C-alpha cells in the first residue's frame, strides 16, 4: 500500500492547511493509495471529480475510480460536508431569528448543552459561530466575560446567543431567562447589542425576541427583525 509522503504532512504542520494544494488536502484525507494507484494520482483524479460533478453525487462518482473504495469515498464526502458546515454561515445576513436557526440546529441532537455565540458585524452579517461552553445533560454554566471577550476579539457590533435543550423542550428555564437578562444588561455597557437568544431542540426552536422576552436596548430589532 502506497502511503502519503511525509513532506505533505510537514508542509501542513509548518505552514498551515491554507498553503496546501487541493490534491495535497485530499492526500491527507486518504492517507494512502494502492499499489496500482499511488496516492498522488488518486488525489488528482478525486479533485477532478469534485470539480466536474454535483456534490450530491460525490460518493457515487468516487467509487467508480480504481482503488477508491466506499471507505475512502465516504471520508472525502464527510470532509466536504464538515467544511460546508463550518463555512456556510460566513457573512450570512441575519434579518430575523429564523435566519440563524439553520446555522445552529445541528447542535439540537447533542446530548449535552452547548452554549453558542454568534458574532455579527454592523450589517448583521455573521462573522463567526463559537462554542463557548459544553455542559452536562441538562445544564451549562455561562459568564458574560466569556461571551463578550470573544465578541470583542471578533470586533462584533452585535451578538446572538444560542443553546440546545437535549430534553427536546424548547421552553426557556428560569436560568435561561436570568442569563439572558444578565447578558442584555452587560451588552448595554459593552456597546455590543444582544439581538436574540435562540434555544434549539429536536422539536424546533424558541426565540426570546419573537416571544417578546428580550427588550431591544435601542431602536433596532423588533419581534420580526434583527
Description:
The chain contains eight helices and five strands; from the N terminus they run ααααααββαβαββ. It has helices at 6-15, 22-30, 39-52, 58-62, 70-87, 97-104, 144-153, 174-190; strands at residues 114-120, 126-134, 158-164, 193-201, 204-207. A five-stranded mixed sheet has the order 2-1-3-4-5, with helices on both faces. Residues 219-225 have low confidence and may be disordered.
Based on DSSP secondary structure assignment, what is the total number of beta strands? Answer: 5
Structural class: alpha+beta
Sheet of most strands: 5 strands, mixed
CA radius of gyration is 22 Å
Task: Output mean pLDDT.
Answer: 87
Report low-confidence residues grouped into runs of 5 or more.
219-225
What does the secondary structure layout of this molecule look like, with pairings?
Blueprint: H1 6-15, H2 22-30, H3 39-52, H4 58-62, H5 70-87, H6 97-104, E1 114-120, E2 126-134, H7 144-153, E3 158-164, H8 174-190, E4 193-201, E5 204-207
Parallel strand pairs: 3-4
Antiparallel strand pairs: 1-2, 1-3, 4-5
Helix pairs in contact: 2-3
Key attributes of the depicted protein:
226 residues; alpha+beta; 5-stranded mixed beta sheet; 5 strands; 40% helix
Structure described in brief:
The chain is an alpha+beta fold and 226 residues long. It has helices spanning 6-15, 22-30, 39-52, 58-62, 70-87, 97-104, 144-153, 174-190, and strands at 114-120, 126-134, 158-164, 193-201, 204-207.
